Amino acid sequence: MWLRYAFRLDPTPGQRIALARAFGCARVVYNDAVATRERARVAGEPFPTAAVLSRTLLTEAKKTRERHWLGEVSAVVLQQALRDVEAAYRIFFASLKGQRKGSKVGAPRFKSRKDTRQSIRLTANARWSITAAGRLNLPKIGEVRVKWSRPLPAVPSSVTVIKDAVGRYFASFVIDTDPAADAARMPASDQAVGIDLGLTHFAVLSDGTKIDSPRFLRRAEKKLKRAQRELSRKQKGSKNRAKARVKVARAHARVADARREFHHQLSTQLIRENQAVAVEDLAVKALARTRLAKSVHDAGWSQFVDMLAYKAQRYGRTFVKVGRFEPTSQVCSICGHRDGPKPLHVREWTCAACGTVHDRDHNAAVNVKQAAGLAVTACGAPVRPEHVPAQRDEAGSHGIRTGTRAA
């Protein structure tokens, strides 16, 4: 399957200038393409094709006085900016026709030079390479130092260079993983587990294991408030305000990085130890509109479940989502008696039929496992009434700038 491997870059001052030039040229081409299509729409004319856009906005524009500096960056970077516009319009029209799942998205809009996240993409025909010394050689930029945290499992098909809100640079490689190597990394298991996600504990497993919620945002809240107050006192447009903005972004980045690392470690552990994993399909968007919104966002359930899904697909595990309307907290996992809904402050209850005393979260985790119909044979093969494969978009896809923000 296609996955992204991201590594930190350490460009020199000259390379940072060259990257800024590439980011700017890609942004200008993207905006020119959006403006051209918007003019065609207003005039009632057919949208220009990709070939026409490439000829007018790249080949001919480089010969003009206003756009001659487009020739200072790799042509592949500019071509990929045009591909991004096409993809953004495809998503927009699919959303209008109801062919796209999820919330509606708006028409592609212009990018700003003040955007905190910037990126360029280079495919194989851009002749980028990884040198023998382990540096990333980018056309018209040079050999950039890479902080390798792990080896690449295969030859990448493309690389995306990203600058985030904090000013950090990353290289994101698209890799087609080897199924045989993945199977060797994680041999078959004879265990299955149900997971109940919550706020008191981040996760409670069907075997009784309770995993505490790290609450990264809550722990960093005081530092975040202080940094935000300092930012609000700075004069708009000043250099001190720009420095204060970076401090706020850095504080938020630490929280997001710590949460992501926690999700990766826990999801990998669960996939390694279990052949089948079941989790309840929570209505995160609805919960995020309640008084528990901050805690729900802090937990990051959606990100964690997505990691479970793609790792299960990668390593040949079974991943099941149990319907959100399944009464996992109301049913006795021993006798099956339905005892009715209970307020959140009730953490233990006694079954009226069999007299079993239940821990609310542990009982729910057991019910999640039973509702999924998970069982594992002696050879490690998962068995369940109906196989539902893990769903995940291509890992090599990238964010498209449209009228709504990505979740």
Short description:
The two termini are 23 Å apart. The chain has 407 residues and is α+β, with helices and mostly antiparallel strands.
Description:
By secondary structure, this protein is α+β, with helices and mostly antiparallel strands. Helices cover 39% and strands 18% of the residues. The strands form 4 sheets. A 7-stranded antiparallel sheet has the order 2-6-7-1-5-4-3. Strands 10-9-8-11-12 form a 5-stranded mixed sheet, with helices on both faces. A two-stranded antiparallel ribbon has the order 13-14. The longest helix has 35 residues, at 239-273. The protein is elongated and about 85 Å long. It starts with a strand and ends in a 24-residue tail after the last strand. Mean pLDDT is 88; it is low at 376-407.
Itemize the secondary structure elements and their pairings:
Blueprint lengths: L1 E9 L2 H31 L6 H10 L15 H22 L21 E6 L5 E2 L5 E3 L3 E6 L10 E6 L5 E8 L2 H7 L6 E6 L3 E5 L4 E3 L3 H4 L1 H13 L5 H35 L2 E5 L3 H4 L5 H7 L1 H14 L3 E5 L25 E3 L6 E3 H12 L3 E2 L5 E2 L24
Parallel strand pairs: 8-11, 11-12
Antiparallel strand pairs: 1-5, 1-7, 2-6, 3-4, 4-5, 6-7, 8-9, 9-10, 13-14, 15-16
Helix pairs in contact: 1-3, 2-3, 6-7, 7-10
